[in-house]
Amino acid sequence: MTVDALTDVAGLRVGHATRTGDGWLTGTTVVLTPEGGAIAAVDVRGGGPGTKETDALDPRNLVQKVEAVVLTGGSAYGLDAASGVMAWLEERGRGVRVGPDPLHVVPVVPAACVFDLGRGGSFRCRPDAATGRAAVEAADASEPGAEVPEGGVGAGTGAVVGEIKGGVGTASVVLESGITVGALVVANAAGSAVEPVTGALYGELTVGRAEYPAGSVHEAARRRLAETAARNAPPPLNTTLAVVATDAELTRAQAQKLAGTAHDGIARAVRPVHLLNDGDTVFALATGARALDAGNPLALNEILAAGADLVTRAIVRAVRAAGPVEGPGGVWPSYEELYGRGRA
Protein backbone atom coordinates (compact mmCIF):
# COMPACT_ATOMS: atom_id res chain seq x y z
CA MET A 1 0.00 0.00 0.00
CA THR A 2 1.31 3.43 -0.93
CA VAL A 3 0.27 6.87 0.34
CA ASP A 4 1.45 8.97 -2.64
CA ALA A 5 4.17 10.62 -0.57
CA LEU A 6 7.94 10.72 -0.12
CA THR A 7 7.54 8.14 2.64
CA ASP A 8 6.65 5.53 0.02
CA VAL A 9 10.41 5.28 -0.46
CA ALA A 10 10.99 2.65 2.22
CA GLY A 11 12.99 3.85 5.18
CA LEU A 12 12.37 7.58 4.73
CA ARG A 13 10.33 9.41 7.34
CA VAL A 14 9.15 13.02 7.43
CA GLY A 15 8.52 15.24 10.44
CA HIS A 16 7.18 18.80 10.70
CA ALA A 17 7.53 21.41 13.43
CA THR A 18 5.03 24.25 12.96
CA ARG A 19 4.88 27.60 14.78
CA THR A 20 1.91 29.95 14.37
CA GLY A 21 0.40 32.83 16.36
CA ASP A 22 1.98 35.56 18.50
CA GLY A 23 4.13 36.74 15.60
CA TRP A 24 4.99 33.25 14.31
CA LEU A 25 4.24 31.84 10.87
CA THR A 26 7.11 29.49 10.13
CA GLY A 27 8.47 26.03 10.78
CA THR A 28 10.87 23.24 9.85
CA THR A 29 10.55 19.95 7.97
CA VAL A 30 13.02 17.08 8.37
CA VAL A 31 13.49 14.11 6.06
CA LEU A 32 15.06 11.34 8.16
CA THR A 33 16.87 8.52 6.34
CA PRO A 34 17.26 4.91 7.51
CA GLU A 35 20.03 4.45 10.07
CA GLY A 36 23.30 4.32 8.16
CA GLY A 37 22.16 7.07 5.84
CA ALA A 38 21.40 7.48 2.17
CA ILE A 39 23.42 8.60 -0.82
CA ALA A 40 22.77 12.32 -1.25
CA ALA A 41 23.29 15.09 -3.79
CA VAL A 42 22.11 18.65 -4.34
CA ASP A 43 21.56 21.07 -7.20
CA VAL A 44 21.16 24.80 -6.46
CA ARG A 45 19.79 26.99 -9.26
CA GLY A 46 18.27 29.98 -7.49
CA GLY A 47 20.26 33.20 -7.38
CA GLY A 48 19.74 33.80 -3.66
CA PRO A 49 20.14 30.45 -1.87
CA GLY A 50 20.42 29.91 1.86
CA THR A 51 22.02 26.53 2.48
CA LYS A 52 24.22 24.52 4.85
CA GLU A 53 26.58 21.60 4.10
CA THR A 54 25.76 21.52 0.40
CA ASP A 55 29.47 21.51 -0.56
CA ALA A 56 29.86 18.26 1.37
CA LEU A 57 27.53 16.59 -1.15
CA ASP A 58 29.77 17.26 -4.13
CA PRO A 59 30.63 13.80 -5.57
CA ARG A 60 34.32 14.78 -5.49
CA ASN A 61 34.25 15.19 -1.70
CA LEU A 62 34.49 12.79 1.23
CA VAL A 63 30.96 12.44 2.57
CA GLN A 64 29.18 9.39 1.14
CA LYS A 65 25.83 9.40 2.95
CA VAL A 66 23.66 11.68 5.09
CA GLU A 67 21.30 10.82 7.92
CA ALA A 68 18.83 13.69 7.42
CA VAL A 69 17.93 16.69 5.27
CA VAL A 70 16.49 19.85 6.79
CA LEU A 71 14.10 22.23 5.03
CA THR A 72 13.29 25.30 7.09
CA GLY A 73 11.70 28.70 7.19
CA GLY A 74 13.38 31.72 8.71
CA SER A 75 15.75 32.53 5.84
CA ALA A 76 19.43 32.15 6.81
CA TYR A 77 18.53 32.48 10.50
CA GLY A 78 16.41 29.35 10.23
CA LEU A 79 19.41 27.23 9.24
CA ASP A 80 20.07 27.03 12.98
CA ALA A 81 17.36 24.33 12.97
CA ALA A 82 19.95 21.95 11.53
CA SER A 83 21.94 22.22 14.79
CA GLY A 84 19.06 20.64 16.68
CA VAL A 85 18.92 17.79 14.18
CA MET A 86 22.70 17.31 14.45
CA ALA A 87 22.48 17.12 18.24
CA TRP A 88 19.71 14.51 18.05
CA LEU A 89 21.73 12.39 15.62
CA GLU A 90 24.91 12.72 17.67
CA GLU A 91 23.12 11.39 20.75
CA ARG A 92 22.36 8.24 18.74
CA GLY A 93 25.82 7.85 17.24
CA ARG A 94 24.56 8.58 13.73
CA GLY A 95 27.00 10.40 11.46
CA VAL A 96 30.51 10.24 10.04
CA ARG A 97 32.71 8.26 12.45
CA VAL A 98 35.73 10.39 13.45
CA GLY A 99 37.10 8.62 16.54
CA PRO A 100 37.44 5.31 18.38
CA ASP A 101 34.30 5.80 20.45
CA PRO A 102 31.04 4.89 18.60
CA LEU A 103 29.67 8.25 19.70
CA HIS A 104 32.57 10.12 18.10
CA VAL A 105 30.58 11.13 15.04
CA VAL A 106 29.93 14.28 13.06
CA PRO A 107 26.44 14.19 11.53
CA VAL A 108 26.40 15.83 8.12
CA VAL A 109 22.98 17.48 7.88
CA PRO A 110 22.39 19.38 4.63
CA ALA A 111 19.86 22.15 4.99
CA ALA A 112 18.16 24.82 2.92
CA CYS A 113 15.84 27.65 3.89
CA VAL A 114 12.94 29.63 2.50
CA PHE A 115 12.28 33.30 3.14
CA ASP A 116 9.24 33.86 5.37
CA LEU A 117 10.59 36.49 7.76
CA GLY A 118 7.89 38.73 9.20
CA ARG A 119 4.97 36.92 7.60
CA GLY A 120 3.55 36.11 11.01
CA GLY A 121 4.02 39.68 12.20
CA SER A 122 7.43 39.45 13.92
CA PHE A 123 10.70 39.49 12.02
CA ARG A 124 12.43 37.78 14.96
CA CYS A 125 10.14 34.74 15.09
CA ARG A 126 12.08 32.11 13.17
CA PRO A 127 13.09 28.46 13.59
CA ASP A 128 15.99 27.57 15.86
CA ALA A 129 17.74 24.43 17.10
CA ALA A 130 14.73 23.51 19.24
CA THR A 131 12.49 23.68 16.16
CA GLY A 132 14.81 21.35 14.28
CA ARG A 133 14.85 18.89 17.17
CA ALA A 134 11.06 18.92 17.33
CA ALA A 135 10.85 18.16 13.59
CA VAL A 136 13.34 15.27 13.68
CA GLU A 137 11.62 13.83 16.76
CA ALA A 138 8.32 13.98 14.87
CA ALA A 139 9.93 12.13 11.96
CA ASP A 140 11.39 9.50 14.28
CA ALA A 141 8.03 8.99 15.98
CA SER A 142 6.17 8.46 12.70
CA GLU A 143 5.35 5.02 11.36
CA PRO A 144 7.10 3.68 8.25
CA GLY A 145 5.14 4.63 5.15
CA ALA A 146 3.06 7.18 7.05
CA GLU A 147 1.05 9.86 5.28
CA VAL A 148 2.73 13.27 5.21
CA PRO A 149 0.73 16.36 6.22
CA GLU A 150 0.64 18.94 3.42
CA GLY A 151 -0.14 22.63 3.05
CA GLY A 152 0.77 25.20 5.69
CA VAL A 153 2.87 22.95 7.90
CA GLY A 154 6.57 22.66 8.73
CA ALA A 155 8.80 24.65 6.40
CA GLY A 156 5.70 25.54 4.36
CA THR A 157 3.91 27.28 7.23
CA GLY A 158 4.79 30.77 6.02
CA ALA A 159 5.28 29.90 2.35
CA VAL A 160 3.80 32.08 -0.40
CA VAL A 161 3.69 31.42 -4.15
CA GLY A 162 3.29 34.64 -6.06
CA GLU A 163 0.24 36.26 -4.45
CA ILE A 164 -1.33 33.12 -2.98
CA LYS A 165 -0.49 30.87 -0.06
CA GLY A 166 2.06 28.14 -0.64
CA GLY A 167 3.14 25.22 1.50
CA VAL A 168 4.37 21.64 1.56
CA GLY A 169 3.35 19.05 -1.01
CA THR A 170 4.43 15.49 -1.74
CA ALA A 171 3.88 12.72 -4.30
CA SER A 172 5.30 9.35 -5.35
CA VAL A 173 5.19 6.68 -8.05
CA VAL A 174 6.17 3.03 -8.44
CA LEU A 175 7.81 2.56 -11.83
CA GLU A 176 7.39 -0.47 -14.10
CA SER A 177 10.80 -1.66 -12.91
CA GLY A 178 9.46 -1.78 -9.34
CA ILE A 179 11.62 1.17 -8.28
CA THR A 180 9.89 3.79 -6.15
CA VAL A 181 10.48 7.52 -6.61
CA GLY A 182 9.07 10.19 -4.31
CA ALA A 183 9.24 13.97 -3.94
CA LEU A 184 8.51 16.52 -1.25
CA VAL A 185 8.50 20.25 -1.94
CA VAL A 186 8.23 23.51 -0.05
CA ALA A 187 6.56 25.85 -2.54
CA ASN A 188 7.51 29.46 -1.73
CA ALA A 189 8.21 31.20 -5.03
CA ALA A 190 8.57 34.73 -6.34
CA GLY A 191 6.95 33.45 -9.51
CA SER A 192 3.34 32.35 -9.83
CA ALA A 193 1.77 28.90 -9.95
CA VAL A 194 -1.33 30.33 -11.64
CA GLU A 195 -1.65 30.95 -15.39
CA PRO A 196 -2.79 34.60 -15.52
CA VAL A 197 -5.23 34.42 -18.44
CA THR A 198 -7.33 31.48 -17.22
CA GLY A 199 -6.54 30.94 -13.53
CA ALA A 200 -5.54 27.31 -14.13
CA LEU A 201 -2.47 25.93 -12.38
CA TYR A 202 0.63 25.73 -14.56
CA GLY A 203 1.45 22.35 -13.05
CA GLU A 204 -1.87 20.90 -14.15
CA LEU A 205 -1.65 22.42 -17.61
CA THR A 206 1.63 20.61 -18.27
CA VAL A 207 0.05 17.21 -17.67
CA GLY A 208 -3.26 17.97 -19.39
CA ARG A 209 -5.31 17.72 -16.22
CA ALA A 210 -6.30 21.37 -15.78
CA GLU A 211 -9.89 22.38 -15.17
CA TYR A 212 -10.38 25.94 -16.36
CA PRO A 213 -12.37 28.04 -13.91
CA ALA A 214 -15.32 30.05 -15.13
CA GLY A 215 -14.45 33.51 -16.39
CA SER A 216 -16.46 35.19 -13.63
CA VAL A 217 -14.64 33.17 -10.98
CA HIS A 218 -11.27 34.11 -12.42
CA GLU A 219 -12.16 37.79 -12.60
CA ALA A 220 -13.30 37.76 -8.97
CA ALA A 221 -10.07 36.04 -7.99
CA ARG A 222 -8.00 38.65 -9.83
CA ARG A 223 -9.81 41.46 -8.02
CA ARG A 224 -9.27 39.81 -4.67
CA LEU A 225 -5.56 39.27 -5.38
CA ALA A 226 -5.12 42.89 -6.42
CA GLU A 227 -6.67 44.00 -3.14
CA THR A 228 -4.56 41.73 -0.96
CA ALA A 229 -1.34 42.40 -2.87
CA ALA A 230 -1.73 46.10 -2.15
CA ARG A 231 -1.82 45.32 1.60
CA ASN A 232 1.30 43.12 1.58
CA ALA A 233 4.91 44.19 1.42
CA PRO A 234 6.61 42.99 -1.78
CA PRO A 235 8.32 39.64 -1.09
CA PRO A 236 12.06 40.41 -1.19
CA LEU A 237 13.23 36.81 -1.27
CA ASN A 238 11.60 33.46 -2.01
CA THR A 239 12.59 29.87 -2.69
CA THR A 240 11.20 26.51 -3.77
CA LEU A 241 12.88 23.57 -2.05
CA ALA A 242 12.54 19.90 -2.92
CA VAL A 243 13.75 16.49 -1.83
CA VAL A 244 13.54 13.82 -4.54
CA ALA A 245 14.24 10.28 -3.36
CA THR A 246 14.35 6.74 -4.70
CA ASP A 247 14.96 3.25 -3.38
CA ALA A 248 17.25 2.60 -6.35
CA GLU A 249 20.96 2.04 -5.90
CA LEU A 250 22.52 5.20 -7.32
CA THR A 251 26.05 6.49 -7.38
CA ARG A 252 26.64 9.97 -6.06
CA ALA A 253 27.03 11.21 -9.63
CA GLN A 254 23.70 9.65 -10.62
CA ALA A 255 22.06 11.25 -7.59
CA GLN A 256 23.51 14.57 -8.69
CA LYS A 257 21.90 14.11 -12.09
CA LEU A 258 18.56 13.34 -10.42
CA ALA A 259 18.73 16.54 -8.38
CA GLY A 260 19.47 18.55 -11.50
CA THR A 261 16.72 17.20 -13.73
CA ALA A 262 14.17 17.52 -10.92
CA HIS A 263 14.46 21.30 -11.30
CA ASP A 264 12.53 20.86 -14.55
CA GLY A 265 9.56 20.01 -12.37
CA ILE A 266 9.73 23.40 -10.68
CA ALA A 267 9.91 25.16 -14.05
CA ARG A 268 6.73 23.39 -15.22
CA ALA A 269 4.74 24.46 -12.15
CA VAL A 270 6.05 27.95 -11.35
CA ARG A 271 6.87 30.83 -13.70
CA PRO A 272 9.34 32.45 -13.66
CA VAL A 273 11.84 30.36 -11.66
CA HIS A 274 15.49 30.46 -10.62
CA LEU A 275 15.50 34.24 -10.28
CA LEU A 276 18.02 36.30 -8.33
CA ASN A 277 15.53 36.55 -5.47
CA ASP A 278 14.88 32.79 -5.45
CA GLY A 279 17.03 30.18 -3.77
CA ASP A 280 15.63 27.16 -5.60
CA THR A 281 17.37 24.03 -4.29
CA VAL A 282 16.75 20.31 -4.90
CA PHE A 283 18.24 17.50 -2.81
CA ALA A 284 18.33 13.90 -4.06
CA LEU A 285 18.42 10.82 -1.83
CA ALA A 286 18.96 7.18 -2.81
CA THR A 287 18.52 4.40 -0.25
CA GLY A 288 20.01 1.69 -2.49
CA ALA A 289 17.46 -1.03 -1.82
CA ARG A 290 16.96 -1.86 -5.51
CA ALA A 291 19.66 -2.28 -8.15
CA LEU A 292 19.40 -0.59 -11.51
CA ASP A 293 19.33 -2.80 -14.58
CA ALA A 294 23.07 -3.32 -15.17
CA GLY A 295 22.43 -4.31 -18.78
CA ASN A 296 20.71 -1.05 -19.63
CA PRO A 297 22.99 2.01 -19.67
CA LEU A 298 19.90 4.25 -19.81
CA ALA A 299 18.11 2.66 -16.85
CA LEU A 300 18.45 5.91 -14.89
CA ASN A 301 16.27 7.78 -17.38
CA GLU A 302 12.94 6.58 -15.99
CA ILE A 303 13.97 7.78 -12.52
CA LEU A 304 15.06 11.17 -13.88
CA ALA A 305 11.78 11.64 -15.73
CA ALA A 306 9.73 10.57 -12.73
CA GLY A 307 11.59 12.91 -10.38
CA ALA A 308 10.73 15.98 -12.46
CA ASP A 309 7.10 14.89 -12.89
CA LEU A 310 6.71 14.32 -9.16
CA VAL A 311 8.12 17.72 -8.26
CA THR A 312 5.51 19.32 -10.52
CA ARG A 313 2.72 17.28 -8.96
CA ALA A 314 3.98 17.99 -5.43
CA ILE A 315 3.90 21.74 -6.10
CA VAL A 316 0.30 21.45 -7.34
CA ARG A 317 -0.60 19.55 -4.19
CA ALA A 318 1.16 22.10 -1.99
CA VAL A 319 -0.81 24.96 -3.52
CA ARG A 320 -4.11 23.08 -3.38
CA ALA A 321 -3.58 21.94 0.22
CA ALA A 322 -2.58 25.36 1.56
CA GLY A 323 -5.14 27.29 3.57
CA PRO A 324 -5.51 31.09 3.51
CA VAL A 325 -3.65 33.30 5.97
CA GLU A 326 -4.70 36.72 7.23
CA GLY A 327 -2.73 38.29 10.04
CA PRO A 328 -0.42 41.10 11.12
CA GLY A 329 2.22 40.02 8.60
CA GLY A 330 -0.03 40.04 5.55
CA VAL A 331 -2.96 38.49 3.72
CA TRP A 332 -2.54 35.53 1.38
CA PRO A 333 -5.65 33.84 -0.04
CA SER A 334 -5.47 30.16 -0.90
CA TYR A 335 -5.99 28.81 -4.40
CA GLU A 336 -8.95 26.73 -3.21
CA GLU A 337 -10.51 29.78 -1.55
CA LEU A 338 -10.24 31.74 -4.79
CA TYR A 339 -11.25 29.03 -7.25
CA GLY A 340 -13.18 26.56 -5.13
CA ARG A 341 -12.07 23.36 -6.81
CA GLY A 342 -11.07 19.98 -5.38
CA ARG A 343 -7.58 18.71 -4.73
CA ALA A 344 -5.33 17.40 -7.52
Please provide a written account of the structure.
This protein is α+β, with helices and mostly antiparallel strands and 344 residues long. The chain is built from 7 helices and 17 strands. Strands 5-3-15-14-13-12 form a 6-stranded mixed beta sheet, covered by helices on one side. A 5-stranded mixed beta sheet has the order 1-2-6-9-4, covered by helices on one side. A two-stranded antiparallel ribbon has the order 7-8. α1 crosses α2 and α5 crosses α6. The model has no long low-confidence stretch (mean pLDDT 94).
Key features of this structure:
7 helices; alpha+beta; globular; six-stranded mixed sheet; five-stranded mixed sheet; 17 strands; 344 residues
List the helices and strands and how they pair.
Blueprint: E1 13-21, E2 24-32, E3 38-44, E4 51-52, E5 65-66, E6 68-72, H1 81-91, E7 96-97, E8 105-106, E9 111-113, H2 129-141, E10 160-161, E11 164-165, E12 167-174, E13 180-187, H3 202-205, H4 215-231, E14 241-248, H5 252-269, E15 281-290, H6 301-321, E16 325-327, E17 330-332, H7 335-339
Parallel strand pairs: 6-9, 14-15
Antiparallel strand pairs: 1-2, 2-6, 3-5, 3-15, 4-9, 7-8, 10-11, 12-13, 13-14, 16-17
Helix pairs in contact: 1-2, 5-6
